[in-house]
Amino acid sequence: MATQAGTPSRFSNYIFKKLMETSKTQKEIAEAVGFKNQNMITMLKQGHVKLALDRVPAMAKALDLDPLDLFKIALTQFYDEQAVRMLTEIIEAGNSPAEKKILRIIRDASGENTPTLTPEREKALAELFK
Q1: Residue 29: how many CA atoms within 13 Å on its side-chain side?
Q2: I want to staple 7 with a disulfide (CB 3.0 to 4.6 A). Which of 3, 14, 58, 79 is the partner?
Q3: Dist. CA 127–CA 102, nearest whole Å
Q4: For residue 31, what is the enclosing H or E element?
Q5: How far apart are CA 12 and CA 88, in angstroms?
Q6: Inter-residue contact 35 to 41 (CB < 8 Å)
Q7: Residues 89-121 pLDDT 10s
Q8: Tens of pLDDT along 20-55?
Q9: Residues 6+ apart with CB under 8 A from 35
Q10: Which of 15, 63, 2 is closest to 42 using CA atoms?
Q11: What is the pTM of this model?
């Protein structure tokens, strides 16, 4: 089940981490997302408010994130892990069964977080599938 407001969640922890990694100010991010007040960013990272799903694309752009990855994590604010997994499968319905299985293995191995695709990992994947 989704966490209560004010409780750190997977999403709020993720946003906190990404805010620490960016050189942008909270004010710049708030403006890019369409918030009138930069305190909304603080409340998001502390789990006091949820990011509306229609704001995910703007937040992803502001933080230089993949919108689909952020959307899937944002879903955890509203739905339990089983529902998020089902919704993710629906979103990715265009993938072949083999691609879905590969993605599931990667997600399970990375703790459901989207792993960073470093040059080394990209090379290893390319070698694996030659």
Answers
A1: 25
A2: 3
A3: 15
A4: helix 26-33
A5: 19
A6: yes
A7: 888 787 788 888 888 888 788 875 677 788 998
A8: 999 999 999 999 999 999 999 999 999 999 999 999
A9: 41
A10: 15
A11: 0.69
The residue extents of the domains of the chain are 10-91
Closest CA to 71 of 52, 90, 95: 52
- The three-state secondary structure class of 55 is helix
82-89 contacts, C-beta under 8 A, 24 or more apart:
none
Cα–Cα dist 120/113, whole Å: 18
CA atoms within a 13 Å half-sphere pointing along the CA-CB vector of 36? 0
Q: Which CATH number fits domain 10-91: 1.10.260.40, 3.40.50.12780, 3.40.50.620, 2.30.30.240?
A: 1.10.260.40
Whole-number pLDDT of residue 57? 96
